[in-house]
Amino acid sequence: MKKSVGIGLAACLLLAITVIVGGTARSAHGKESVVAVPDNRAIARQYFDAWNNGDWAAAGGLYGPTFANLEGSRRWFAMWHTAFPDITDTIDDISVEGDKLTVRFSGGGTHRGEFQGVAATGKRVTVTGSVTWQIQDGLIVAESGDADIRGVLAQLAVH
Questions:
Q1: Hey, which bits of 55-123 come out as E strands?
Q2: Which domains, ranges and CATH numbers included, belong to the chain?
Q3: What pLDDT, in 10s, does the model give residues 2-33?
Q4: What is the pTM of this model?
Q5: What is d(CA 64, CA 74) in angstroms, rounded to the nearest whole number?
């Protein structure tokens, strides 16, 4: 009895390791099975494509039904796109750890609308930041992030 339990535990451990790193698992009977691991990096690319096109409908569609602050995310998106209509950001780095996806980004745009109480200046600014998303079933369910707003305000010569 102990031998079959040991083989069962070893097979479960192999499968768990394979699921974490992705790849092929071999059962105790020598049969292979492919374990699919979702590539959540695609969500980051889809979001930044939508961001760079000013397409909230596409970006908003990446959030799951349990996401707690969709309206706050929509307002953040609108704030940046109203102030900098030509804003584009580039993904500098993507890190994945379990269901967490962290993106470092940089970009910029031309100040054509009010931003943080500052009227349009026509100045071109750059910005850096990061966002961490928790992904479940291919959708964003939690989000935290930051952008260097102080750095942008300094470029607009606001003290």
A1: 88-97, 100-110
A2: 2-35 (no CATH), 41-155 (3.10.450.50)
A3: 444 444 433 333 333 333 344 444 445 556 65
A4: 0.73
A5: 14
